[in-house]
Amino acid sequence: MTNPNNATITTVHTAAFTAGDALKIPTLRILKDDGNLYDGADKPTVDKATALKMYDTMVFTRVLDERMLAAQRQGRISFYMQCLGEEATTVGSAAALDEQDMIMAQYREQGALRYRGFSLEQFMNQLFSNEKDLGKGRQMPVHYGSKDIHYMTISSPLGTQIPQASGYAYAQKLRGLNNTTICYFGEGAASEGDFHAGLNMAAVHKAPVLFFCRNNGYAISTPANEQFVGDGIACRAVGYGMKALRVDGADILAVYQATKMARDYALAHNEPVLIEAMAYRLGAHSSSDDPSGYRSKEEEEMWRKTDPISRFRLWLVKQGWLDEDADKAKIEKLRTEILDALKVAEKVAKPGIEHLISDVYQQPIPALQQQLDELKQHIRKYPDAYPVTSGRLD
Amino acid sequence: MAKMNMLQAINNALDLAMAKDDTVVCFGEDVGHFGGVFRATSKLQEKYGKARCFNTPLTEQGIAGFANGMAAQGMKPVAEIQFADYIFPAFDQIVNETAKFRYRSGNEFNVGGLVFRSPYGGGIAGGHYHSQSPEAYFAHTPGLKVVIPRDPYQAKGLLLASIASQDPVIFFEPKKLYRASTGEVPEEYYEIELGKAEVVREGKDVTVLAWGAQMEIVDKAVAMAQEQGVSCEVIDLRSILPWDADTVAASVMKTGRLVINHEAPLTGGFAGEIAATMQKMCFLQLESPIERVCGMDTPYPLALEKEYVADHLKTYEAIMRSVNF
Questions:
Q1: Is residue B191 part of a domain?
Q2: Do A220 and B86 touch (CB under 8 A)?
Q3: Cα(A55)–Cα(A86) distance, integer angstroms
Q4: Ranges for the Transketolase-like pyrimidine-binding domain (chain B) (predicted)?
């Protein structure tokens, strides 16, 4: 029974606390580290083509991350963020979606982006902020986005995408689209006010949005046990009145299955669902970070053993879907392709000077046009000081 | 005296403030064990314990509200917002709460012991979410003090004065200079009075005014002008709110010319406030229009950062326009 307070009244006559441990949230695991399935686990429904695409995508991001982190160390790009150890979370979930479903990511979801078909060249153009970058060289590396493949451009401030995803999904519902929005964020970003606002709005307004939390244990240096005291993030979804699922984030079959189920439920019932993927951020937060200041090598080594790619590779081989020798050759070829693409992208020119003022508004306002004209005059006077643009002002 | 960079000077100031007064507490994202992403709070947890230097959850509005509550109770929180670009979730707590605590309660309550520290500004290939200079938003908020240091000596003295202040202070630190700016800094406790500008170089032809990281940009422009025989008087505003109109006006009365430089976009930037005040205070002495050299009216770019910024060449041109008007 509910009352005007919209809460269940179960009457007792002796005061008693209710604590979080009343809620036991199970963690879905299907695939073991050795590539075998857990006894009694649901049989994976993924077909061969999808499974191989999932694997290729994880491998692609792993190799790309290695190469681009090295490129950052060499000073070829200014910044980088890898998703080492978390590949299965974003690839497994993206694979469970429809291609028209919207993706609103935080910044470590290159797996989902690649799964959608973002090309190697597009990755490189963004990382080198060149004139072919869809974002016109305006954002730091890894702030990807593409309207064509329904991937909202990344914004650095944490958690801002969460209420936006609620609104986006609500609009999808109002417009009669049979699509959802998936919203990725970390357990750290779940502390932002926008998280609470976004979940409540989605629940109240029945937006078919999938909140996907990558609980990877760290927000830069801050471990999850200094971030929150409750039982992970999933318990909060229940507090907002939505369904929740918790999965092993290194188990791509579990992530895939949970996301499929969540998507079906969200669209069938017009309700948000929260998925919490238990993962470990095996790399540094970013190229600006050094984890040796806050965690041990031993801790990292322990988690390295739960590698999401190797366990899925073992499963694919057991299925007879993957030949290990051919796979090795393919990875070598990929390394070459990535290096070649890097060399091309770093030579592409930076965006033209007109892009200093474009897109601030739909059309540049007069004051901006005047500022650009004055800037061009100034650059003509000091061409050597502005080598990126001085040779092509007209 | 000891040679310190700006981070070391800030760390030293926090250390001295915590040692002097056990109501001073430092917190923010990654501020505890790790010592902050820039290491401004390095070793403070080790020295003063987890109760007085700690990590917070990742929530700027939470940090600001928590700081308001601690300060209202009588403590002196020094809360770090990891980047000034990320201060906006805390805007409500700062603008509607911090700034108005004393006023709205008729001085029944106040948050006078509160300091928000935050790295601001560009020049680090940070794009629009790691480069902004939001001082003008806060300068538009009566009840706050806004302070920006230019070098390690200034950073230490101004931060200690901010912590000692009976009013809440937003202390923006030029992150570009964190390690790049070094200098001799007294090891002992000292304060630099808030609300006072400093004439850092005397001259007679034109007054050049800036703050924070732009001071070194201005110095380069002034050296170029000097080669052309132009004598510049250089002022570091140091406090954006309240700001020292008298020191600036005295200089402009003498030189008859004013060039103001800031990193933030032109429109609505604090240079506009200074220009308006100076044209009133110095109307009959002005020899040329007041020049503003600022960021363009766009978000802070990445690939075209060099073109966008208020650099020394643009400042030099403005100085020469002012002198040759």
A1: no
A2: no
A3: 13
A4: 4-180
Distance CA A302, CA A211 (A): 28
Tell me A392's DSSP state: G
Q: Are residues B221 and B173 in the same domain?
A: no
**Residues of chain A by 3-state class (helix, strand, coil), percent to 5:** 45, 10, 45
- Of B29, B80, B97, B130, which is the active-site residue? B130
Helix (H) or strand (E) holding A333: helix A324-345
The per-residue pLDDT for B285 is 98
- pLDDT averaged over chain A? 96
Which structural domain range is residue B60 located in? 2-185
List Cβ<8 Å contacts ≥24 apart for A16-24: A20/A230, A20/A231, A20/A235, A21/A231, A23/A231, A23/A235, A23/A238
B37 and B154 assigned to the same domain: yes
Write out the two tokens for B27: 């917190």
What ipTM did this prediction achieve?
0.95
Please tell me whether residues B26 and B174 are part of one structural domain.
yes
The reply to whether B94 and B19 lie within a common domain is yes
User: Do B247 and B149 lie in a common domain?
Assistant: no
Residue B256: which CATH number? 3.40.50.920
pLDDT band with cut points at 50, 70 and 90 for residue A2: low
The verdict on whether B130 is a catalytic residue reads yes
In sequence order, the 6+-apart residues with CB closer than 8 A to the CB of B86 are: A157, A158, B60, B129
Q: CB–CB of A114/A60 below 8 Å?
A: yes
* pLDDT class of A3 with cuts at 50, 70, 90: confident
Return d(Cα A116, Cα B192) in angstroms, integer: 56
B112 and B24 part of one domain: yes
Average pLDDT over residues A216-240: 96
Task: State the catalytic residue, choosing from B60, B97, B263, B273.
Answer: B60
Look at residues B158, B185, B212 and tell me which one is the last residue of a structural domain: B185
Instruction: Give the pLDDT confidence of B102-121 residue by residue, as tens digits.
Output: 999 999 999 999 999 999 99
Residue A146 has pLDDT above 70, yes or no: yes
Whether residue B208 is found in the same domain as residue B161 = no
Q: Is the peptide bond before B242 cis (omega within 30 degrees of 0)?
A: yes
- In this complex, the residue of A129, A140, A360 whose CB is nearest that of residue B298 is A360
pLDDT for A9: 87
Domain count, chain B: 2
If we measure between CA atoms, which residue out of B201, B304, B308 comes closest to residue B255?
B201
Topology of domain A24-345, per CATH? Rossmann fold (3.40.50)
One-letter amino acid at A229 equals: V
Quick check: is B291 catalytic? no
Domain boundaries, chain A: 24-345, 353-392
Give the SS3 label for residue A15.
Answer: coil
CA distance A292 to chain B (A): 10
